[in-house]
Amino acid sequence: MRIMVMAGTRDAVRIIEGLTASEDNEVLATTTTRYGGELARSAGASHVISRGLGVDEMVQIISQKNIEVLVDATHPFAAEATKNAIEASKIAGIKYIRFERPQIPLPEDDLIYEVRSFEEAASKVKEIAEKTLEKGAEKDLKDKNNLNPKIMHLAGVSTIHHLTKLISPENIVARVVPSIYSLNKCFELEMTGENIIAMQGTFSKDFNKVLMEEYHASVVLTKESGETGGTPSKIDAALELGIPVVVVTRPEVPELKNEKVFGDVNQLLMEFHRDSD
User: Fold this and answer.
1) Phi and psi for 133 in degrees, rounded to 5?
2) Which of 8, 183, 190, 211 has a 20 to 30 Å separation from 200 between CA atoms?
3) How many angstroms separate the Cα of 241 from the Cα of each of 152, 216, 238?
4) Within its chain, how far is the Cα of 128 from the centroid?
């Protein structure tokens, strides 16, 4: 079976590995970054396209490569990519399957601020930072770190620009994937090297606490990326330190209403086993 997997996440790597375990399957993977493409290839994809694709181009590739099934394993926040995938699969007349990592319930805590967009998140972060600064001035704090609140950005390099529109880059600490693309994006936004944490992976609550303390974070910005994205450990670390957390909730994709959606990789792979029986 010829399968197109829209990849770029750890979940997609597992899906590609599971699909290519069968010699009957051939996987073409699409990603938006070269790094994601390398991961997809190492997972077993026979062909990789590392750039964003519009609907027309996707339809053309599906036709040229005789794709039979499109598996959308993009990030929960890649709403436009998912909409394009659904439209392309309908035009091409092939089966569409969505993998979406399960959502996590957010703790009920006064320190958690749920917002629906990164624009709203930036405004809320600025509001919280300004209040922190005012409280510090009222108490006549001598610790310069408390008088210069740092915002710890843990929501992906592509969303930092929303913050830099409202907040000075010198007050933003960002953890990003250690790639040339990510570093260049940070430098384009005039962030300094000392405020860029280039690390790959998800991290424990204790490790996140150490980073937040080391960089004197006064506000944390993250997004609801599920367990796989390390969201719980980020939030728990901040709450234990008494740091406010602004959480961007997932965008809704109405087009998914009548589509087959899986939240478990093994169940998704079983779907292919049933089709091949």
Assistant:
1) -65, -40
2) 190
3) 13, 11, 5
4) 24
For the whole model, what pTM was predicted? 0.85
23: its two tokens: 């010699």
Question: What string of pLDDT tens digits covers the 277 residues of the chain?
Answer: 999 999 988 899 999 999 999 999 999 999 988 888 999 999 999 999 998 899 999 999 999 999 999 999 999 999 999 999 999 999 999 999 999 999 999 999 999 999 999 999 999 999 999 888 776 544 444 444 444 679 999 999 999 999 999 999 999 999 998 989 899 999 999 999 999 999 988 899 999 999 999 999 999 999 999 888 899 999 999 999 999 999 999 999 999 999 999 999 999 999 987 766 5
User: Residue type for 194, please?
Assistant: E
Alpha carbons 193 and 187: distance in angstroms, whole number: 8
